[in-house]
Design a protein that fits this description.
Number of strands: 8
Oligomer: single chain
Structural class: alpha+beta
Strand content: 25-35%
Largest sheet: 3 strands, antiparallel
Shape: globular
Bound molecules: zinc ion
Number of domains: 1
Order of helices and strands: EEEHHEEEEHHE
Strand order of the largest sheet: 1-2-3
């Protein structure tokens, strides 16, 4: 759509309609309110855990290897994020929906860049 047709209000916050994280699965899926569906392999979610312990306090959020890839806990946080807990008792990662929307590894959202080689500002 041409820029002139964009609504005047600021970018609306990404909002998930449904979040699927079946026990034993290796991926989490989110259907967004704009009709997009994102599929996140657990490896991607764990690697991009945005907590300070994984990422430090400064710099962009980057993929970090290591840790359990078994999702054990999904808890919505204040309508703007989900907290993901992992089987190795790592439960400090709070993933905002805005971050998750940008993290979507589908070819459209990642623009052909290898999902694990991307980095994200806070
Ligand atoms: Zn972390
Ligand atoms: Zn996408």
């Amino acid at each position: 759509m041409p820029p002139s047709e964009k609504p005047p209000e600021p970018e609306s916050l990404p909002r998930p309609l449904t979040l699927r994280a079946p026990m034993g699965a290796r991926q989490m899926e989110i259907d967004w309110h704009d009709g997009h569906t994102s599929i996140y392999p657990h490896r991607l979610l764990r690697g991009f855990c945005p907590c300070a312990q994984c990422q430090g306090h400064q710099g962009a959020i980057r993929f970090r290897e290591g840790g359990s890839l078994e999702l054990s806990e999904v808890e919505e946080v204040g309508n703007y994020a989900v907290r993901l807990g992992w089987a190795d008792d790592h439960t400090t990662g709070i993933y905002s929906f805005r971050f998750l929307r940008r993290l979507c590894p589908c070819p459209t959202c990642s623009a052909g860049v290898e999902p694990e080689s991307r980095s994200f500002g806070h």
